[in-house]
Amino acid sequence: MSIDFLALANPGVPGLHPYQPGKPVEELERELGISHSVKLASNENPLGPGPKAIAAIQKALPELARYPDANGFALKTALAGKLKVNTDQLILGNGSNELIDLLFHTFVGSQQEVVYSQYTFIVYALATQAHGAKAVEVPAVDCGHDLDAMAAAITPATRLVCITNPNNPTGTFLGKQEVKAFMERVPAHVLVVLDEAYTEYVGEDERLPSIDWLNEYPNLIVSRTFSKAYGLAGLRVGYMVCHPELVAVLNRVREPFNCNSLALAAAEAALNDDAYLAEAVALNNQGMAMYEAFFNERGLKYIPSRGNFITLDLQRDAGPVYQALLREGVIVRPIAGYGLPTCLRISIGLEAENQRCIEALKKVLD
Ligand SMILES: *Cc1c(COP(=O)(O)O)cnc(C)c1O
């Protein structure tokens, strides 16, 4: 007996395709029979987890038979102190991706519209489609968000607007005034998620005062993660900061034990590891300068980035270059799925990894 499972699925599901992650190192090495390849494809922190996080994980191991703290008291307390918010303004997730999904589960249905930019984090498009909502994709300007056009795209049916800043996969950045002026234009029935997964890489003077804005805009939701600058992508932990009543609604839908105990312990420790964070940011700045210098020297086109990655525009189909780089043992990220078929996104790695990538690019492009 054969069953058409797709026909049984919810209305948005037949239109979906699985998320395409960066190629794992093990997979490439298995396929090509090579070793010592480098992965610069998923915006991971090349330093590995920090020493304080590792120590906290080791300390938490004997308690693994117990369920984690469903309310994440210790991590929320640490975050509240750092961000100067109340613990009831925080919700923790299995990566910020889970919280994005939670926002959609809670607030977005087939009657609603979701506004997001062309060339932004693909998870917003996937979640919109999965919930059968109407996607309103606003054309980008200079590969970044056009906030004027996004504000103009809001209708009475709009429930959620998604802004990624710095943006992934382009690395573009919106300044304080622009985002503040946008928030002024958004009606109260529209929730705005400001995804700041890369905010730690932005200089403190330029970073948006997004947490301060929560007092003015109860419809604003700030999303952050421990997956990038804090180096804990494998543990899956992120958080959102927003109005306490909004948190209370989300908590009705949230799985009770969505953050595991190792993630909670490691994130709390990582939050206090200023030395590790500073090292990660400094390394990123150096690596970014290396790539920019190389691209400029070669006359290669790229999108100036404020994240921990840089997008190279080859101005021709990037697929063959991606494949050729794989054969050199260098994994970068093709972003044709984001509508950028001539581009490759390169995550900033350790100095030797960046050097390796640059050498491979020279070889492949000659
Ligand atoms: C990497 C990334 C995230 C983080 O996802 P996690 O689920 O927290 O690992 C969120 N938003 C954007 C734009 C990202 O690039």
Along the chain, the helix and strand elements come as: HHEHHEHEHEHEHEHEEHHHEEHEEEH
Sheet bearing the most strands, described?
Answer: 7 strands, mixed
Strand order of the largest sheet: 2-8-7-6-5-3-4
Figure out the total of helices. Answer: 14
Radius of gyration, in Å, reads: 21 Å
The CATH C-level class name of the largest domain? Alpha Beta
What structural category arises from helix and sheet content?
alpha/beta
User: Would you give the CATH topology of the largest domain?
Assistant: Aspartate Aminotransferase, domain 2
Number of strands: 13
CA distance, first residue to last residue = 55 Å
Extract low-pLDDT stretches.
none
How would you characterize this protein structure?
Keywords: Amino-acid biosynthesis, Aminotransferase, Histidine biosynthesis, Pyridoxal phosphate, Transferase. Pfam families: Aminotran_1_2. One of its GO terms (molecular function) is histidinol-phosphate transaminase activity. It is a single chain. The protein is α/β, with parallel strands linked by helices. It has two domains: 20-48 and 275-365, Aspartate Aminotransferase, domain 1 (Alpha-Beta Complex), CATH 3.90.1150.10; 51-273, 3-Layer(aba) Sandwich (Aspartate Aminotransferase, domain 2), CATH 3.40.640.10. It is 39% helix and 16% strand. The chain has helices at residues 5-8, 25-32, 51-60, 73-83, 96-107, 122-130, 147-152, 176-185, 210-213, 244-253, 261-271, 274-298, 319-327, 351-365; strands at 38-39, 90-93, 113-117, 134-138, 158-164, 191-195, 220-225, 238-241, 301-303, 309-313, 330-331, 333-335, 340-347. A seven-stranded mixed sheet has the order 2-8-7-6-5-3-4, sandwiched between helices. A four-stranded antiparallel sheet has the order 9-10-13-12, with helices on one face. A hairpin with a 4-residue loop joins strand 12 and strand 13 (340-347). Helix 3 (51-60) packs antiparallel against helix 11, helix 5 packs parallel to helix 6 and helix 12 packs parallel to helix 14. The longest helix is centred in the last third of the chain and has 25 residues, at 274-298. The model has no long low-confidence stretch (mean pLDDT 97). It binds pyridoxal-5'-phosphate.
